[in-house]
Amino acid sequence: MILDRVIELAHWQFALSSSLQDLFLPLTLGLSLIVAIMESAYLITHHEIYKEMACFWGKFLGINFAIDLLIKLALACQFGINWSYYTYYMSDISSTLIMIESLIALLNASLISLFYFTWNTLSKKQHLLITWLMTLSAMFSVVGLLIVDNGLQNLTSSQFNYQTMRMEIAQFPDLIFNPEVGMKCLQTLTTSYILTITLVLSISAYYLLKQRHLEFAQRSFTFAAGFGLVVTLAVITLAGVEHYSDNKRLKTNKHLFSLLNTALIDKSVIARSEMLETNRQKIRKGIKAHVLLDKLRDSHHQPQLLVEFEHYKKYLGYGLLLKRYLENIEEADDEQIEAATHFSMTSKTPVLWSFNIMLGFYFISLTVFIIIAISYLTNQQHKSWLLKLSLYSFPLPWLAFGMDRFIIQLVQQPWAVTEVLPIFLSPSSLSETHLGLSLIAYIITFSVFISAEIFLMLKLIKQGIMSLDVNYHTVKINWEKN
Amino acid sequence: MNLDYESLRCIAWVFLWLLIINFSITGGHDLGTAILLPFLAKTDKERSQLINLSGFTWNSHQIWFIFIGIVLFSAWPIVYAVLFSSMSYVLFFSIMAVLLRPFAVNYRHKLSSEKSRCYWDKGLFLSGFIPLFIFGLTLGNLLKGIAFHLDSDMRIIYYGDFWGWLNPFALLIAITTLGLFTLYGAVYVQLKTETDIAIRAQEKVQLGAIIVLIGFILTGLWVMRLEGYHINSEILQNGFSNPLTKFVKRGEGLWLDNYEHIPALAAIPIVALISCGLTIWLSAQNRPKLAIISSKITIVGMISTVALSMFPFILPSTMSLNSSLTLWDSSSSYNTLQIMLWGTIIFLPLMCVYVRWIFKLCKT
User: Fold this and answer.
1) Tens-place pLDDT, residues A11-45
2) Contact present, A325 and A1 (Cβ < 8 Å)
3) What pTM did the predictor assign?
4) What residues of A are in the B interface, CB distance below 8 Å?
5) Does B66 touch chain A (CB under 8 A)?
6) Helices (H), A118-156
């Protein structure tokens, strides 16, 4: 029997840590592309201002990437420290890709530092090559993360191995060439670009309102506005494509646009009582699976038992839900099964509500992009209301993004991995103090990271582009003096 | 080419220990120099000089450390899970200490007053001392065993606490490790600097080497009486990774079993001892180039001694002997190991070439 409070703590911790882990990813993705395009413009037009733009936004990229890397490091430790059972159970799916992903992250880190330090030493073309390599490696690293994410949601490429008690990879190519991944990449890219564009728009608008760095700010603003229009069009097309594509796969795909469709389907089709009945059946089959598993362990793999187990093993996770109520699953009575059935249901109403709010936020920022585009056509782009609009609409997509991440976790509860592993079984230890302390540690760590990022960015905004030249020449000299 | 599960596991095990050795050799002198900082440098200028020795490359050395974690996670998932969940507090301290380093190196020169610089220098000292101390503690506790238990669902139950880590045997190994890296750092300083600092470094080489010699011999004597572990049942080298299918016995001096079976293995600790003695002599003769080679041999020898004595164990358990993790029953699945092997064969050389290229770019 596990206390409700412990379950609650575990759920909060899981939701928080998994929703915050790629908080800084979008900026890395978006800014690296923006910087690369700006530098290409510099090479084509030979206009110094484009170099300044690339440098300035490159600094944001650097700050963001450094913090992102620190978070990744913290997470790498945290999965062993706090989520050891989850790690053990699922790591076979993610391990190879995480290894490759971290290699790419290191590559990306070194490319970013090259981007900083070689402005004066390399020729323009060589430097541009490095910048584009940096952008590409950022994209690859995201693709790697998305494949892992997808592999943990659609377990088609892996199988439960009763001898080792964990999911093991069966078909590695299936993991990588999963049709879901492509769509998810597009979605992640568009979301990241929306977020980055609002950042660039609002900072440029701030400078324009303050009458600082006028030419620089104007060009950045125009650039972001054009980019924003492209992204808006892309989002509309994507949503359309998603809507008309195969509905079956929406069940597992838990991203922004498909969530909308799932929500709509859920409303009309599946009634709660029906769901309860199915889950009750699944839990009973889960108990059966556990009985078979225990027999298999004792009787040294009788082939006949094995065949039977293969049939039931996909319900094993539902059986694990009963661990909340008693240690020995086989002895579960009707009352406990009933409780587990209710536990297995997530309430959809608050999720639907917050989902609508989130979509609204995204919608507003897309509208802002369109308004800005129209203002360019009518030559009103310097009106102060427009600048204020772009400045103050900045937090909206970020709120939406945060909510998006959080909702995905809420929809998933009580599962850490849907229908396979409940969250309350995933932590290393289920003592209340351990969970409480580590939750506090999370909150502190992430607040430190987030406030460090905000502080550094604000400092950079205050300094403006004046800081650039001085810094770029002195960084290396400082190092030598030091 | 398809290798069988057994060889893949062996390769993964060797790779893991090679990475640990590699980190000790590349990152070791940075950490060692950091420890020596308050003892070798008397003036502010000397301190800057010492800090600059690690210069541009120290962060690439620390990346090896991250890489060890990743390989543990990918190839030895349950070892990673047990080690990290049992080490949580210890690990927390060492990460905090490691994080001090980039700040100390980057912000130190921006401070004008000597007093505030002093704080960062103390920070630097801790950033070398704490990780090395914890590295030694971990090695000691690996040999002694960790208090964990695996239930039939493979959930990890950890019985130990923070103070359990600080047992006398682990402390002895921690001190020996500190001595070893001080020795290495001092030889490195002697090689790279001249004048006063080099002379002071020479003294520290002697001190470090004496600690290492005494510590290593004491450890060896202790291990004869220490409770080692041995697999008592048949081992399926190609079987599934389930640690609970074997029987393990514990007894005094069982860590010396491997040397009894293959007496030639005893050459490794002996070589380590001899090269440690050689380092003293070479350093006293003022031939730091040779001394650094012999100190590297000492490190390789001593760490391999730990690895080989424990073979095939990776993480023995004191609480439930049969839960002990060994090379044959705690690896990833066959497929994962296979893919990882090919991934490493392809990417590692590419990485090396790439890193060379970067260093060239940075130098010009």
Assistant:
1) 888 888 877 777 888 999 999 999 999 999 999 99
2) yes
3) 0.88
4) 73, 76-77, 79-82, 84-85, 87-88, 91-92, 95-96, 98-100, 102-103, 106-107, 110, 114, 117-118, 121-122, 161, 163-166, 168-170, 172, 297, 425, 428-429, 478-479, 481-482
5) yes
6) 124-153
